[in-house]
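Can anyone check this?
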Amino acid sequence: MDKQLLFALDIGTRSVIGLVGEDENGTVKLIASDREEHHTRAMLDGQIHDVREVAEVLNSVKTRLEAKTGKLTRVAVAAAGRALCTLRISAELDVSTRGTLTPEDERSLELAAIQTAQAELATSRTVPEPADYYCVGYSVVNFSLDGTRIKSLVGQRGKHSAIEAIATFLPRQVIDSLQSAIETVGLEMATLTLEPIAAINVLIPTTMRHLNLVLIDVGAGTSDVAITRDGSVIAYGMVPFAGDEITEAISQKYLLDFNVAETVKRQLNGKNKKISFTDVLGMAQKVAAKEIIEAMAPKVGELAQAIAAEIIALNNERPQAVLLVGGGALTPLLPEVLAEALDIPATRVAIRRPDSIEGITGIPAKLCTPDSVTPLGILKLAGGRTLNFINITVNERAIRLFNLSRLTIADALLAAGIDIRALRGRPGMGLTITVNDETMFIAGGHGSPGEIARNGQPAKLTDILEDRDSLVVTLGTDGATPAPLLQDIAPATEPLMITLDGKEYQLARQVTINGVLATPDTVLHDRDQICAKPTLTLKDALGQLAHEPVPAEYTYQINNTERSYKIWPQFSIDGTQASPDTPLTAGSVIEILKPPPPTLAEMLGIDSEVDSSITVSFNGSPCIIPLQRHTILVNGKPADINQPAASGSHIDFTTSPELQPLISDVLLAADFDPRSLPITARVNILLNGMPTEYTAIVKNGDSVEIKIETK
């Protein structure tokens, strides 16, 4: 009979349990066990805080076990689900050429799924630093062969196999501290799993997993959750709330040292009706167990609510039953309160003990306790197909990879968070530039490839990794992005000679980038819009010469208020009046024309003699009748609005209100003066052929006739 010595350690927040068994053709015979509690709170929430303190306890347990079994060098361990990250993944494998499938074929498919999970985590944003997370276990949800779900692939034949699995990851800090403590006592981590995975393999065999069951490992620091349904494990979870919070509540209530409060809590499940203890003040007390249970009830309720919330979040509904394991499972009131929180019958929440476990024999009575389920599960998995490490370094950074069969350098780079694409060296980004509405492209520089060295020798991504390999990865260099100058794209043209007010000037052709004037040494960027003007305008010339036209300013006293009026100069090019947009040619002569003084109409803002008027016919001739009249006095004398307004003049300006014109206004506008007629003359006025009076109203287009009769 072949025998293999198996060593398992359950390194918990409160205590360390060590088990040694012999593998006898697939069955583990338990031959030794040992337990020791931490002397201080060296672990919190499943995380090692004091490696040396934990290592001392591990060494004590290991030493006592070796006295019974001989030298122990390799150990199987499990991690609590602190900061657990869970991924549900699938993988496929073509098995059409493999004939009858073997356990190795099934194992290859499992490992392919784990590699898929690692790749998915490394490229996702699920966690801040994916490279700092390790896969600590996985559970197969189901296999399928040619589209049909099947329990196992072994012994089957087909073309296409697939797997769906749940992979669990923990932060590097959790695993590294565990590894450090183990190595301190001279042990090598042989296998690693997750505590709920170990526990579920003991209490819920595959024949029970068609039920919707929840296994909760209530430890001192964490409460780990595993859920089964439809024949497989469907989810893992963790609540950072467990037995230590209950102990803290007792400690706070009765002013007890934490270890004393822990002892009091453990006595609550005994037959003692009253419990004696001494508080931190040195006062001895004797308190009824019922009173202590009532004092810690609120915290138990909080623990139950936290666990129930995690179960509902993972399961999306109430489970059929809940199995409690771990030392914290013995917390008074917990099963009843948890059943109430989940709204299931109290009889469906039970504390489980490992009275008998398939695959393990020789379990002593002292291990038939809820907190022995997980260490027994670790021991059972120690001889199975669990994960193990290989240790490598990538750029002097230590990396532990789970030995997933044929690991390659590409897997190491993935675990180290190095983007494999960065090894190639990407071309530099090109520039797209528009010159006078025509698009041109300037290519970027070529990148240079990176290098990989393994143990000082050149290596490829596909090379197989070995334990203790040292990798040095030099990333590729990206090509440079071009930075052309304006003069490289739009060379300067010949300057333009012009004459301004008798002086000769040399003007450069203007080039703008994105509408801003640029110099030849301006560096170009992507999407720049270049406008190289073929001609210069009068405005361009004045801008280059920094010539700012100065207006002529006139001042007046208008109705006793000082006012000013500006007239901008005009320009001529080669004797012809020009606008700012008039183009220049070689030899253009530009003159600045001094404007004449403004007229009264320009200065006062009057466009014509009258702002509004109507037109009537007077004795057959058109006659304009103003509706308003302007009265202008310049230095006290009447003035016409079209005469120049000398600077410094005193101007009095009034405007009559707009009125409805009368016949008398028509006569006035037509310069008809009845006083020039003989005394005996008789004047007849016709409006549109009808007799009318001087006070009759006229409208635009009316006809007025004057008929004079002499006696």
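Reply from J.R.: I decoded it. Residues 483-595 form one domain.
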